[in-house]
Every structure is written in structure tokens, then in C-alpha cells.
Design brief:
By secondary structure, the protein is an alpha+beta fold. It is built from 9 helices and 11 strands. The chain has helices spanning about 70-80, 85-95, 100-120, 140-150, 160-165, 180-210, 215-230, 235-245, 250-260; strands at about 1-5, 15, 20-25, 40, 45-50, 55-60, 60-65, 85, 125, 130, 135-140. The protein has a 4-stranded antiparallel beta sheet with strand order 1-4-2-3, with no helix packed on it.
């Protein structure tokens, strides 16, 4: 909290007026202060949660450590799903081996610890439900929203789409798991595969857009990244061969053709089905 005696600029902040015990929103040019006014300003923190790769939380640009593994998983789940959840459902998801009463107690304990770390009412805790404040920035949500808003990629849209793709630094919650929570791990695997497919489709569009702009070098790099997601993707092999040929790299195009021919046939064992 900051004590302000003579504000010199109008900003959007929540103020607590101790003289009236009321909250006042500042952002109105018709609201003026005198030299005798005294207000306490509550500055709301900016949280950023990164779920591509190992989960990472930042508050105002500073890393926030969450020691409890299930508290981290709980935060990730609330953020990624983006909706309120019934406490009983959360208790069953994260403590499946416990009875319902014990699981509820464990959930409450983790929520308490998480709330102490987050502060600023980041958690919306109701008697029977839990949610995360909707102004939490999330890399996965940013990634999905930008790509959904750009079903096609033109030269003008390319920088925006490329910035969203760059958020995908690793798979969803890569390296993070809860061995005693099979339903959470299944949810995580499904989300990871869905996001990989979204990235694959976006990379294909970006590679074509770069090729249309005669940016062969970046188009080839993008197509190679697409192929790395799924070495069995025939469309990615075909795109890469075409790009090599357009760039005059005939030997590379032939090598790519040979790699495509040598790839093993897809099988149900090699290609898991995440549909539920």
C-alpha cells in the first residue's frame, strides 16, 4: 500500500477512503483532490503463469515459488480450464486415494497455502466452489486465443501469429506429473496433445505465408519445426520437399523424399488416441 497526500495524475486504481469506509474507483477527470486529502492506494499485482514447459509463475516480473507440488498443479488446472470448479470434484481429482472428508481437508489446506502466496484475492473461494481471478495472464490462453483469431495467416498477420507460436517453448507442463493422480495426468496428456495439434496447424500456415513472401529460409525452418512435432506427418514432409525445391536445394529435397519413404507406417501403438 502507498500513502498519497497530493496526487498529481489520474490513474485507474482502487482506493479505500477511510473517512467513508467505501471503495472509490479513480479514473474520472471530474474527481479532484485537495492538499488535505489522504488516500490509501491498493495496487493490484500482475500475475503471469507459464504452462508451456515446466510451470512457472511470476508476479510483477518476479518469480513466485510454490513449494507444494499439488498446489502448483491445482493452480495450473484452475488457470488452464478457466472456470469455477466444485470443491468435491477438485478433492477427488487431486486426492483420489482419500475419503471425501479427508480429501476436502487436504484441498482446503492447499488452497489456504496458495492463497497466502498469491494474495490480492487471486483465488475466488466460495463455500462449494473455487476459481481463479479472470485477469490472470496465461501463455496457453494467449496462444490459443491468437491462433483462433487468425484462421488464415497473411503477411500482415504473420508477426502476431509468430509471437503466439513463440510462446510454445515446450509441451504443456512438460516434465511435470502427479503419479498418484491418474485423472490429472490423463487431463494433462489430452491438453498437451491438443495444443501440439494446434501448433502443428499454425506452423503449416506460417510456413506457407513465409514462402509466399519469398522468405524461403524461414519457411524451411518453420516446416522443419512442424515435422519435428510428428515425424510421420506426410503433409509436413511434402511441404518441406516443395520448399527445398523452390529454394533450389534439389539435393535436400531428394534427401527429404528418402526420409519420407523410410519412415515406419503409422500404427495404433505408435500414435496414441487422446480422444475421450
Amino acid at each position: 500500500m502507498i500513502l498519497v497526500t497530493k496526487p498529481t495524475a489520474v490513474v485507474q486504481l482502487r482506493l479505500l477512503d477511510y473517512s467513508t469506509n467505501s471503495d472509490t474507483m479513480i479514473g474520472n477527470p471530474h474527481l479532484h483532490f485537495t492538499q488535505h486529502d489522504s488516500w490509501v492506494i491498493t495496487l493490484m499485482s500482475t500475475f503471469k503463469l507459464y504452462l508451456f514447459g515446466s510451470p512457472r509463475l511470476e508476479r510483477d516480473g518476479v518469480a513466485v515459488k510454490i513449494s507444494r507440488r499439488k498446489a502448483r498443479a491445482l493452480l495450473c488446472y484452475l488457470a488452464a480450464t478457466g472456470k469455477p470448479h466444485v470443491r468435491d470434484s477438485l478433492a477427488t481429482l487431486f486426492w483420489p486415494a482419500y475419503g471425501q472428508s479427508e480429501a476436502r481437508v487436504a484441498l482446503s489446506r492447499h488452497l489456504y497455502d496458495l492463497n497466502q502466496i498469491l494474495v490480492d484475492d487471486a483465488l475466488v473461494l466460495e463455500t462449494e466452489s473455487v476459481a481463479l481471478r479472470d485477469d490472470f495472464w496465461l501463455d496457453v490462453a494467449e496462444f490459443a486465443a491468437v491462433l483462433a483469431a487468425h484462421p488464415t495467416v497473411t503477411a500482415r498477420e504473420l508477426p502476431t501469429v509468430q509471437a503466439a507460436i513463440d510462446l510454445y517453448r515446450a509441451d504443456f507442463l512438460a516434465g511435470f506429473t502427479l503419479p498418484d493422480c491418474p485423472d490429472f495426468d490423463e487431463w494433462q496428456a489430452f491438453q498437451s496433445e491438443t495444443l501440439r495439434q494446434t501448433l502443428r496447424a499454425a506452423l503449416e500456415k506460417v510456413a506457407l505465408a513465409q514462402a509466399a513472401m519469398h522468405d524461403g529460409e524461414n519457411a524451411i525452418a518453420t516446416a522443419r519445426r512442424q515435422l519435428a512435432l510428428d515425424p510421420l506427418d506426410e503433409a509436413a514432409h511434402r511441404t518441406l520437399m516443395q520448399l527445398y525445391a523452390q529454394a533450389g536445394q534439389q539435393a535436400a529435397a531428394l534427401r527429404q523424399y528418402d526420409q519420407c519413404r523410410q519412415k515406419p507406417p503409422p500404427s495404433s501403438a505408435a500414435r496414441p488416441n487422446w480422444r475421450r
